[in-house]
């Protein structure tokens, strides 16, 4: 059990004392005395004592409690991920997702699962007008879950980059796109395309360094029209005029790209593709 799931249970009043002990047992590798004490607790467990011990663990780790929104998002993502492969209890997981979105007023996420939820209700409790079978319902669920998973766009606000012009391209060490206020540093695979086809990619540059001039011609002076980050890929798409720059992390060991306005906004793709 991870910290976000543990706090999800706290926020929804479903946490048990044994959950804290289980969490501690899975984190003994941290070699923290407070974790070892919590992990050693046996039944019967005193809820107040366990809560205090967990508070001591949080202080020892210098961790702050994650927000309720973070925990809800993580919980829904965990449930969603189980639907990417065939699973016997897919219907019950969809119901849990849908009920969670309603209970916590997550309207956008509720809409994502509305159609599938309605189909399940029609199959189980309605007149089954469309002649659904359990196999068909399960097929619909996995297809829907995969589509949403791979097309979920981050809610991060990139408006500070919209309207900025590309002022220069630096290729001496990394592929760096200089902006009027900030820069994009790329250390991972990328490609440049228009609406019809790929124009240039990382492998093209590797075989012909002269193509950097083409990239400069394509990007310098162009205005950023849009920035999209697909969460699960992860894939960053930056539209400059009629040109699209796709940046996709391809390493579990090395960082991928950095986007900064040289002031308050600093984002980078960490090893493994996590965004920070």
Explain what you see.
It is a single chain. The protein has helices at residues 3-11, 17-25, 33-39, 47-60, 68-81, 90-103, 107-124, 134-151, 202-207, 211-219, and strands spanning 166-170, 175-179, 182-186, 190-193, 198-201, 224-230, 235-240, 243-248, 257-260, 266-268. The protein is α+β, with helices and mostly antiparallel strands. It folds into three domains: 3-60, no CATH class; 68-151, no CATH class; 166-273, no CATH class. A five-stranded antiparallel beta sheet has the order 1-2-3-9-10, covered by helices on one side. It has a five-stranded antiparallel beta sheet with strand order 5-4-8-7-6. Helix 3 (33-39) packs antiparallel against helix 4, helix 5 runs antiparallel to helix 6 and helix 6 (90-103) packs across helix 7 (107-124). The longest helix has 18 residues, at 107-124. The radius of gyration is 24 Å and the shape is globular. The two termini are 22 Å apart.
Topology of this protein?
Elements: H1 3-11, H2 17-25, H3 33-39, H4 47-60, H5 68-81, H6 90-103, H7 107-124, H8 134-151, E1 166-170, E2 175-179, E3 182-186, E4 190-193, E5 198-201, H9 202-207, H10 211-219, E6 224-230, E7 235-240, E8 243-248, E9 257-260, E10 266-268
Antiparallel strand pairs: 1-2, 2-3, 3-9, 4-5, 4-8, 6-7, 7-8, 9-10
Helix pairs in contact: 1-5, 2-3, 3-4, 5-6, 6-7, 7-8
In short:
With 276 residues, the chain is α+β, with helices and mostly antiparallel strands. The chain is built from 10 helices and 10 strands. The protein is globular, with a radius of gyration of 24 Å.
């Amino acid at each position: 059990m991870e910290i976000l799931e543990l706090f999800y249970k706290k926020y929804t009043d479903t946490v048990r004392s044994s959950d804290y002990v289980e969490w501690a047992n899975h984190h003994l590798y941290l070699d923290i005395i407070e974790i070892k004490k919590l992990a050693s607790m046996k039944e019967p467990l005193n809820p107040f004592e366990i809560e205090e011990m967990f508070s001591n663990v949080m202080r020892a780790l210098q961790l702050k409690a994650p927000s309720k929104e973070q925990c809800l998002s993580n919980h829904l993502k965990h449930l969603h991920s189980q639907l990417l492969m065939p699973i016997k209890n897919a219907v019950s997981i969809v119901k849990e997702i849908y009920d969670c979105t309603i209970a916590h007023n997550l309207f956008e996420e509720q809409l994502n699962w509305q159609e599938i939820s309605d189909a399940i209700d029609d199959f189980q409790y309605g007149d089954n007008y469309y002649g659904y079978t359990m196999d068909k319902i399960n097929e619909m669920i996995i297809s829907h879950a995969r589509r949403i998973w791979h097309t979920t766009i981050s809610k991060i606000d990139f408006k500070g980059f919209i309207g900025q012009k590309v002022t220069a391209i630096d290729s001496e060490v990394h592929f760096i796109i200089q902006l009027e206020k900030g820069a994009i540093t790329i250390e991972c695979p990328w490609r440049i395309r228009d609406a019809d086809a790929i124009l240039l990619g990382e492998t093209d540059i590797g075989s012909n360094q002269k193509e950097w001039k083409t990239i400069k011609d394509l990007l310098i002076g162009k205005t950023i029209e849009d920035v999209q980050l697909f969460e699960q890929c992860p894939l960053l798409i930056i539209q400059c005029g009629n040109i699209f720059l796709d940046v996709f992390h391809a390493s579990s060991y090395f960082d991928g790209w950095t986007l900064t306005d040289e002031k308050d906004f600093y984002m980078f793709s960490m090893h493994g593709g996590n965004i920070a």
